[in-house]
């Protein structure tokens, strides 16, 4: 999902650059002359999004590990509950066979 957002943001930036290149004032940036101002703004936004993606990536991995651990615990507990339900049913059947009420 994060990769999809990244790709969509990239194409959006490309489209905005092409739409705004001709109508923006031109400046000198990093030694390059006659660069549209919108390119500089979008370039800085693009670099910022890459940096935030890199910073957030390890956090996303740790969250995925925690989620998978919790899912495993839930499955184990569901298995225990199922076993206990089966045991309860067996005990109820034994009581019914003896003629006692449950």
Please explain how this structure is put together.
The protein has 102 residues and is mainly alpha-helical. The chain has a domain at 2-71. Helix content is 79%, strand content 9%. The chain is built from two helices and two strands; from the N terminus they run H-E-E-H. The protein has helices spanning 2-20, 37-98; strands at residues 26-29, 32-36. It has a two-stranded antiparallel sheet with strand order 1-2. The longest helix is centred in the middle third of the chain and has 62 residues, at 37-98. The protein starts with a helix and ends with a helix. The mean pLDDT is 79.
In order across it, which strands form the biggest sheet? 1-2
Structural class: mainly alpha
**How many E-type strands?**
2
The backbone outline, from C-alpha atoms, is rod-shaped
N-to-C CA distance = 52 Å
Query: How confident overall, as mean pLDDT?
Result: 79
Strand content: 5-15%
Radius of gyration: 30 Å
- Low-pLDDT runs: none
Sheet of most strands: 2 strands, antiparallel
Estimated helix fraction: over 70%
The run of helices and strands is HEEH
Helix count equals 2
């Amino acid at each position: 999902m994060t990769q999809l957002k990244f790709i969509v943001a990239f194409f959006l930036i490309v489209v905005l650059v092409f739409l705004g290149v001709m109508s923006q004032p031109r400046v000198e940036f990093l030694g390059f002359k006659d660069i549209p101002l919108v390119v500089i703004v979008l370039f800085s936004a693009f670099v910022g999004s890459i940096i935030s993606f890199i910073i957030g990536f390890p956090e996303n991995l740790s969250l995925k590990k925690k989620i998978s651990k919790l899912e495993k615990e839930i499955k184990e507990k569901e298995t225990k509950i199922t076993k206990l339900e089966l045991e309860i049913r067996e005990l109820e059947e034994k009581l019914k066979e003896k003629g006692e009420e449950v």
